[in-house]
């Protein structure tokens, strides 16, 4: 089934088209400007098979950049910052706190810039046929010839590039890609975009990328040279370079299996590491987190079982993604709530904030369509609970549950122990005073964790 095309709006008012497929760890596949058309790409079997392979066990996101495909065409700003805004709009619209980012060729500078500016959000950076400084790419003799053709003969330009990127032995593939290029963008817009991207230079940002990075280079690509990939791999700390000798410039044409295998192996390492959450130990100091969907019974009565279950599944997806991204251990789920634990109060708070921001993003989307919002309360406490098997018991756990029940939808409440553990770590707390909680003789001082961006 063809993915449903949706839209996100950038901070400068540009509508960006995107689709998603699959479930699991988010993988955002950035478009290579100026040639992308998410609707036409899906109708090409090689493209479609590549996307289906990428989406196995993951949520794949593909979007059209500004000025191309089914995104807004009436655009004049094609700066590096504008391309970063396109990516930012899509991931914010989907409520992703962390995601893997895949980008190729001309898309690589914007991907590198985003990863350097938002290290906490990019779990993995994957680059294909990449360069950091556009002048290194566009000064190549072959690129100078192609640029001249581009400005003089639109059809000859697209046919030539089609052959270069798909291989001269595949004339039908080359013609299809040339037609896709012409459908993706007008010649005038192409000239406007390339005038900007020819000036991109993120070489000074390479050292600021903290995400695990895989630099893949197709061995049969006519350009860019492998030396540009080596430059990126040497500039990004601990980056890994893989040269796929039999791969073409377009990863989905020719030996696509090699590209898929390299991507799966790299992302699989992160998924395995994320799955290795902390196992409770007897007497270990833990931070315990509870979530609870506000008004879940009323929600079921109002929407019916099936639709209410759809809403609750969103709660489960968001919570599990935040736990996985921040090293939390899911201990149990109660249908409309979770119990989790962390070895670090900082990571527990970061996870809670990620959850509320993702819930807020989802509510903005469903609210625009008149659907029910998802309001979730979160409570945290820290102490030395009793561990039995993979579960936790005791006063520390009971207090965390009571704190969660005392919170309102959209609120994060923490005990004074958690507030003290996180002092000086950059969190904003509001003293809510003492509260009398069921089952506890003495009042408990509570703190609200401010999670909205303006906080």
CATH superfamily of the largest domain: Alpha/Beta hydrolase fold, catalytic domain
Largest sheet: 8 strands, mixed
Shape: elongated
What oligomeric state do the depicted chains represent? single chain
Average of pLDDT: 88
CATH A-level architecture of the largest domain: 3-Layer(aba) Sandwich
Q: Detail the poorly predicted runs.
A: 270-280
Count of distinct structural domains? 2
Strand arrangement in the largest pleated sheet: 1-2-4-3-5-6-7-8
Assign a percent range to the helix content: 40-55%
CATH topology of the largest domain: Rossmann fold
Q: For the CA atoms, what is the radius of gyration?
A: 24 Å
Gap between N and C termini: 42 Å
CATH class categorisation of the largest domain = Alpha Beta
Architecture overview:
The protein has two domains: 6-274, Alpha/Beta hydrolase fold, catalytic domain (Rossmann fold, 3-Layer(aba) Sandwich), CATH 3.40.50; 286-450, Nucleotide cyclase, GGDEF domain (Alpha-Beta Plaits), CATH 3.30.70.1230. Helix content is 43%, strand content 22%. It has 16 helices and 17 strands. Strands 1-2-4-3-5-6-7-8 form an eight-stranded mixed sheet, with helices on both faces. A seven-stranded mixed sheet has the order 10-11-9-12-15-17-16, with helices on both faces. It has a two-stranded antiparallel sheet with strand order 13-14.
């Amino acid at each position: 089934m063809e993915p449903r095309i949706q839209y996100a709006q950038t901070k400068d008012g540009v509508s960006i088209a995107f689709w998603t497929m699959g479930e699991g760890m988010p993988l955002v596949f950035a478009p290579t400007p100026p040639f992308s058309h998410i609707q036409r790409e899906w109708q090409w079997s090689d493209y479609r098979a590549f996307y289906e392979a990428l989406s196995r066990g993951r949520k794949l996101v593909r979007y059209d950049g500004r000025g191309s495909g089914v995104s807004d065409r009436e655009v004049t700003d094609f700066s590096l910052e504008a391309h970063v805004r396109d990516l930012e709009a899509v991931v914010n619209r989907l409520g992703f706190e962390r995601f893997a980012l895949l980008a190729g060729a001309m898309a690589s500078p914007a991907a590198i810039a985003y990863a350097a500016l938002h290290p906490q959000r990019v779990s993995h950076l994957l680059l294909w046929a990449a360069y950091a400084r556009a002048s290194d790419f566009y000064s190549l003799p072959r690129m100078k010839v192609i640029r001249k053709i581009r400005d003089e003969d639109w059809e000859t330009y697209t046919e030539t590039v089609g052959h270069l990127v798909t291989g001269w032995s595949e004339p039908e593939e080359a013609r299809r890609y040339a037609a896709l290029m012409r459908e993706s963008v007008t010649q005038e817009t192409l000239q406007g975009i390339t005038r900007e991207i020819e000036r991109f230079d993120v070489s000074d940002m390479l050292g600021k990328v903290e995400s695990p990075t895989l630099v893949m280079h197709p061995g049969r690509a006519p350009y860019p040279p492998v030396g540009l990939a080596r430059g990126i791999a040497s500039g990004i700390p601990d980056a890994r370079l893989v040269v796929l000798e039999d791969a073409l410039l377009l990863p989905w044409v020719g030996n696509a299996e090699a590209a898929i295998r390299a991507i799966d192996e790299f992302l699989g390492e992160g998924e395995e590491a994320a799955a290795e959450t902390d196992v409770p130990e007897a007497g270990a100091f833990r931070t315990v987190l509870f979530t609870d969907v506000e008004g879940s019974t009323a929600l079921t009565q109002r929407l019916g079982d099936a639709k209410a279950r759809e809403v609750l599944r969103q709660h489960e997806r968001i919570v599990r993604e935040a736990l996985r991204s921040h090293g939390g251990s899911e201990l149990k789920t109660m249908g409309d709530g979770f119990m989790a634990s962390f070895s670090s109060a900082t990571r527990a708070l970061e996870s809670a904030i990620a959850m509320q921001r993702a819930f807020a993003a989802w509510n903005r989307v469903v609210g625009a369509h008149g659907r029910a919002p998802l309001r979730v309360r979160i409570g945290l406490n820290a102490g030395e609970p009793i561990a039995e098997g993979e579960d936790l018991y005791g006063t520390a756990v009971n207090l965390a549950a009571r704190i969660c029940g005392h919170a309102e939808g959209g609120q994060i409440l923490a005990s004074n122990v958690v507030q003290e553990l996180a002092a000086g770590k950059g969190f904003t707390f509001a003293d809510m005073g003492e509260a009398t909680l069921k089952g506890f003789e003495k009042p408990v001082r509570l703190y609200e964790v401010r999670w909205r961006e303006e906080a």
